[in-house]
Automatic annotation (TrEMBL):
Residues 92-270, 297-472, 510-698, 737-910 form the VWFA domain. It comes from the Eukaryota. SUPFAM superfamilies: vWA-like (SSF53300). PANTHER family: COLLAGEN ALPHA (PTHR24020), PH DOMAIN-CONTAINING PROTEIN (PTHR24020:SF20). This is COL6A. It comes from Mytilus coruscus (Sea mussel).
Length: 918
């Protein structure tokens, strides 16, 4: 009688329930008693643990690693068992096993043996424990569901029937599928603890950027994750997957050369004595003092990249002021400071600088927008907080908890290797770190900086910040000390984005259709019903002017963005794309609505996806379906809440066997406005009532009131951006027609051209120019091009941002541009006293072109006021000859470079000159 390798035997050589062999017999799966040495029914021979050395040599896992891995798993489960896996405990357990090529087929067989060991001692037969099993390689696969087998023998047989698949390592897909498909209402029990044990031998190499986020979402759904790694040199990804604390929920084979007892709270379920220990995140184990104190020294650590726009910047400042809205600053319980990091860290104001809430709010609101930088050294920022902010000389108080809130919209690109050391030193000094990442390519960085994974928040957009305010205030007592009516109403702007009513009044909107077509849907009903309904929604949409943008997502067992918001800039092309759809690729018997909503939030409604929420453009989502969702309803509800928090207005259309109660729970309020139902897709297109019920709520989908048609600007596929507002609103009224003329020079760099476009957008959007103004835009080089022609400024400013530098020329025919205006822009017989032309040039006029002095004179004689902006460090004689003069003063503005266009004085100077003649 021998014990398995590395098992700790007692004097009697008893090895718990796991004997290795007897009398030459190969190892049974599980021996049932130590004296009789009898095998249970259905045992299947397996190689002895002592033989594993031979069988593991050809695999990736080292011999010791595999044998230690077995000991590891047995020890883990023994510890779990010791913490309450008793007859009166209920648990839904999903085992997820790596089946990638790096593991190898031989080692995969050994891992199945480990999976058997996991379920060997748990109570399956009584129904207390349900077990599901998954594997993952290039994609994940559910091998059996939680409610599929109800005996231990059948579960083990099912495990050994699983075949090796190979491929890559897509951990993200496995976690997502476990959360949304296995732990679902069909098989998941609400009164049972949900647990995942993830077994892997390496890093994710497919969808690696999603892995941490999927783990975070899984934990947020109340699912505990044990992460087990074999032969890993770097456990950073494993650390971010596992629940907290890591010494309980994350294990590697290397940790078990000398097996030690696991901590007593490894598994937060009912103990055998019936007591319920607190959840791990609420235990007093390393609990930060900040979670129990009414006092705090709080430091904001900020980074703003050059990709951040002023509207987003303002929302971050609003978030900061709203976060401290209920903090008791005036009595001294809370102190607030702020720092930022670029290439290095810098203190904005320290903890002793301000002692009243009003002063702190004013200081936050004065943080300059020009602090932006693409250089990001998070480690240096953390060091500044530790050494310069949390110091006695800076106002830090002994015995008062320190809180640090890191907010960034980009990953570090300087001294990245030093981040962990810096953050660990700050934590060791007693600070509690919260991190907020906005649109990050790699969220792992800031997740690892946070004091706890639960203290890290990964956002797609600043629109999600308002919802985060309450979560942090509820978590940290010092941020919610005052239960008074908000006292910052005058200084805190409204957060989030407008919904419903804004769609009805705004001329612009982004509209996304999510549709499901059942597998039994006839081709005729698909073509003449569903497809026609979606097409009719865009029948009168203002797509060509840039006011309306449309996108479509189809969902079934899988989800697909059929086309995104920046795909089509012409209504005819958009509707033609819909008409080309064939039924077969879209029909499906499954309806994974959760995955569709997640794709919508993370891709379609992102900046790169063409969404304009950052500009304040309202967004509508229309869900059209003929069956109930087959995904986890809780996860779908969470996604719906995320979208509503972002300001999205939800419409739903239920057809045939759709669950209208489910759809009613998703729509915006009032329900009768945003939800409708029909017996078939044919009914949706009988008359106009169903289409109009939606389009009547979205002005951008309605026929535009009569106005001069716009000449559509060239549209790129990039998402529009929000432009910095460089000055307060200026009172410019009654300007009826503004014509902007800019030079499209080959010498203008792409960066300078982008700055010019931003300037034009700021001029037409943020300066207070009357919304009744008509706008025209003309570019010129060798030839002239009308980009916008006599269009309402509220419509035109939305697609100024889409101007692209395609027509570049060494020649500058300003006279030709003026002639184009005379012939095609100015209306014959009109009065031009309220017409202003702004000419923007960075080089002299080409003498080979039309005489610009003659055409300029004709314009001035008709009452047109001509302004000039010269972008050069030298005098510009050409502009001096064409601009209007008033009392010997030329309406000519001089800047040395394009960069100066971003500064407030030049914008204010231009707007002031536009008041001439009013």
């Amino acid at each position: 009688m021998t014990c398995p390798l590395h098992w700790l035997d007692t004097e009697g050589m008893t090895c718990a329930l796991h004997w290795v062999d007897t009398e030459g017999m190969t190892c049974a799966r599980h021996w049932v008693d130590t004296e009789g040495m009898t095998c249970p029914l259905h045992w299947v021979s397996r190689k002895c643990f002592s033989d594993w050395q031979t069988s593991a040599k050809s695999g990736k896992m080292a011999t010791n690693a595999m044998s230690l891995y077995m000991v590891l798993m047995l020890s883990i489960w023994d510890q779990i068992s010791a913490q309450g896996v008793c007859l009166d405990e209920r648990m839904d357990l999903v085992i997820i096993v790596d089946s990638s090529s790096t593991l190898g087929e031989e080692n995969f067989e050994l891992v199945l043996g480990l999976a058997e060991t996991i379920v060997d001692d748990i109570d399956i037969d009584s129904g207390n424990v349900h077990v599901g099993f998954m594997t993952f390689g290039t994609s994940s696969e559910i091998r059996f569901e939680l409610n599929e087998y109800d005996t231990k023998v059948s579960v083990i047989d099912a495990i050994y029937s699983v075949e090796y698949s190979g491929g890559g390592s897509n951990t993200a897909d496995a976690l997502s599928a476990a959360r949304s498909k296995v732990f679902s209402t069909r098989s998941d029990r609400p009164d049972a603890q949900n647990v995942i044990i993830l077994i892997t031998d390496g890093y994710s190499d497919i969808n690696a950027d999603r892995t941490v986020r999927e783990a975070e979402l899984t934990r947020q759904n109340g699912i505990k994750i044990y992460a087990v790694g074999v032969g890993l040199q770097d456990t950073s990804e494993l650390d971010l997957i596992a629940s907290q604390p890591l010494d309980i929920f994350r294990h590697t084979a290397e940790d078990w050369y000398e097996p030690v007892e696991l901590k007593t709270r490894m598994f937060p379920a009912a103990r055998c004595d019936g007591e319920l220990p607190p959840l791990v995140e609420e235990t007093n184990l390393d609990r930060p003092l900040i979670l129990d104190s009414d006092e705090q020294d709080l430091v904001f650590l900020l980074h703003f990249s050059n990709d951040m726009y002023q509207a987003e910047f303002k929302k971050i400042l609003n978030f900061m002021t709203s976060l401290i809205e209920r903090a008791d600053i005036d009595s001294g319980l809370v102190r607030v400071g702020a720092a930022l990091y670029r290439e290095s860290g810098v203190v904005i104001f320290d903890l002793k600088a301000y002692r009243t809430k009003k002063e702190v709010v004013e200081a936050i609101e004065k943080i300059p927008f020009n602090f932006k930088s693409n250089r990001a050294n998070l480690g240096a920022g953390i060091n500044v907080v530790r050494d310069q902010m949390l110091a006695d000389s800076a106002g830090d108080r002994q015995g008062i908890p320190n809180g640090v809130v890191v907010i960034t919209d980009s990953n570090s690109n300087i001294n990245v290797d030093g981040i962990d050391e810096s953050s660990n030193e700050l934590k060791d000094a007693g600070a509690t770190i919260f991190t907020i990442g906005i649109g990050l390519e790699n969220p792992n960085e800031i997740v690892s900086v946070a004091s706890n994974q639960e203290f890290s928040y990964i956002l797609n957009d600043v629109a999600q910040l308002p919802a985060l305010t309450t979560r942090l205030q509820d978590r940290v007592p010092s941020l919610s000390k005052l239960d008074l009516k908000p006292v910052l109403e005058e200084t805190i702007g409204s957060l989030g984005f407008p919904t419903g009513s804004k769609l009805k009044s705004s001329e612009s909107a982004d509209v996304v259709i999510l549709f499901h077509a059942g597998h039994k849907l006839k081709s005729k009903e698909f073509n003449k019903g569903l497809k026609l309904f979606i097409s009719r929604l865009f029948e009168k949409a203002q797509v060509d002017s840039g006011s309306a943008r449309g996108a479509v997502i189809n969902y079934g067992a899988a989800v697909k963005e059929v086309f995104g918001l920046n795909k089509y800039n012409k209504k005819s092309l958009l509707r033609k794309a819909i008409q080309k759809w064939k039924p077969k690729p879209f029909r499906n018997s499954k309806a994974d609505l959760t995955a569709a909503l997640r794709l919508l939030r993370t891709k379609t409604l992102s900046k790169t996806g063409g969404a304009r929420m950052s500009e304040g453009i309202p967004t509508a989502v229309v869900i059209v379906t003929d069956m109930a969702s087959t995904s986890d309803s809780n996860a779908a509800s969470q996604e719906i809440n995320n979208l509503k928090n972002m300001g999205v207005t939800m419409f739903t259309v239920g057809v045939a066997k759709a669950d209208n109660n489910e759809l009613l729970s998703m729509v915006s309020q009032p329900q009768d406005t945003y939800h409708q139902s029909a017996k078939s897709y044919f009914d949706l297109v009988k008359g106009d009532s169903h289409v109009h019920k939606i389009t009547n709520e979205i002005r951008a989908l309605q026929k535009k009131s009569a106005r001069p048609p716009a000449t559509r600007a060239p549209v790129t596929t990039r998402a529009p951006v929000i432009i910095p507002s460089t000055t307060a609103a200026l009172n410019v009224d009654h300007t009826k027609h503004l014509i902007i003329v800019f030079q499209s020079s080959s010498s203008t760099s792409p960066k300078d051209f982008k700055t010019l476009v931003k300037f034009l957008h700021s001029l037409t959007t943020y300066t207070g120019i009357s919304r009744d103004t008509d706008l025209s835009v003309v570019s010129f080089g060798k030839f002239s091009q009308i980009l916008v022609n006599s269009t309402d400024i509220t419509t035109a400013d939305n697609f100024i941002l889409t101007f692209d530098k395609k027509l570049r020329s060494k020649m500058a025919d300003l006279g030709g541009a003026f002639l184009t205006i005379l012939k095609y822009v100015l209306k014959k017989g009109s009065h031009f006293q309220n017409t202003h032309i702004i000419v923007i040039m960075d080089k002299t006029v080409d003498k080979k072109g039309i005489d610009y002095t003659i055409t300029a004179k004709k314009l001035r004689e008709r009452g047109v006021v001509i302004h000039g902006i010269s972008i050069t460090d030298k005098p510009h004689p050409d502009l001096e000859q064409v601009v209007t003069y008033s009392d010997s003063k030329a309406f000519l503005h001089m800047v040395k470079s394009y960069a100066e266009l971003e500064k407030g004085p030049i914008l204010q100077s231009v707007v002031s000159s536009l008041q001439y003649g009013e």
